[in-house]
Design brief:
- This protein has 261 residues and is mainly alpha-helical.
- It has helices at 2-21, 27-44, 46-64, 67-74, 85-104, 108-131, 157-174, 181-205, 241-260, and strands at residues 139-140, 154-155, 209-212, 217-219, 231-234.
- The chain has one domain (2-260).
- Helices cover 66% and strands 6% of the residues.
- It has a three-stranded antiparallel β-sheet, with no helix packed on it.
- Strand 3 and strand 4 form a beta hairpin.
């Protein structure tokens, strides 16, 4: 067991260090990623760790596709492409918790919860990175009205397709960890879609949003990219993007565990 733990931290630490050098993780993000990866490897093994790797690698690569085109839209986000500890925990914390529960009380349901959480994170990330490239303006998932690219809770056909593909990939990589891989594949994909849907609904309703009067644009931070102080526009105070992501992955995990039963 000790050897497995040491190997887990060495592998996770090496990957996190490389990501830090390439600017994909901040220093705090690298530390959090090392811990999350190690717990997942110890609790679930190689297939679970592989699913985490698929999420991190593909989301990082997709973030660089059309970077120049995405730059203006991403200025409205509260955080950039370099993930800090809160972003790592928001996307991978629930998956790590499922792995920890597998260590404490081994049960197949934790695999389904893990896949549901990570499929949600990957599906949502793919939807953001690919959906921004859509030619037409997206629609609010609540009002169905056209909204600017990058608006929280906005959806597009391209983004929805990316959600399904991202959730499917994670479920596909993790499926061999079970004796019933097809069941994990289907349940994980569905759970990931459910979690991503929750993410969009929360983004359109309770996520805190701000408004820059000078630029007439909504943004996720109290200070707009132009440098002006933005006024609080809507949402619950303190309910930012990281909390939305954490809640969505929790919903995906619950959906995955429910589909197991």
């Amino acid at each position: 067991m000790l050897g497995r733990v040491v190997l887990a931290f060495v592998m996770s630490g090496a990957i996190a260090a490389l990501a830090f050098r390439r600017g994909a993780l901040s220093s705090s993000g690298a530390i959090a990623a090392t811990a999350v990866g190690a717990v997942i490897f110890v609790g679930g093994g190689a297939w679970w760790f592989g699913a985490l790797g698929a999420f991190f690698v593909t989301s990082t690569l997709l973030g660089r596709v059309g970077a120049a085109y995405k730059a203006r839209t991403k200025r409205e986000f509260s955080k950039g492409d370099t993930r800090d500890a809160w972003q790592v925990l928001a996307n991978g914390g629930v998956a790590a918790l499922a792995a920890l529960l597998m260590i404490v009380s081994p049960d197949a349901r934790w695999l389904y919860a893990f896949v549901g959480a990570l499929a949600t994170a990957n599906g949502d990330t793919w939807a953001t990175e690919v959906g921004i490239l859509s030619r037409g303006e997206p629609r609010s998932i609540v009002t169905l009205r056209r909204v600017p690219r990058g608006t929280s809770g906005a959806v597009s056909a391209l983004g929805l397709g990316a959600t399904v593909a991202g959730a499917f990939l994670v479920a596909l990589v993790a499926a061999p960890a079970s004796g019933r891989p097809l069941r994990v594949l289907v349940a994980g994909t569905v759970a990931g879609m459910v979690g991503a849907l929750v993410d969009s609904i929360l983004g359109a309703t309770v996520q805190e949003s701000f408004w820059c009067a000078g630029c007439a644009r909504a943004c996720e931070a109290p200070r707009h990219s132009c440098g002006a102080v933005a006024e609080r526009h809507r949402g619950v105070i303190g309910f930012g993007n990281d909390l939305v992501n954490f809640t969505a992955t929790l919903a995906g995990a619950i959906a995955g565990a429910a589909l197991y039963f």
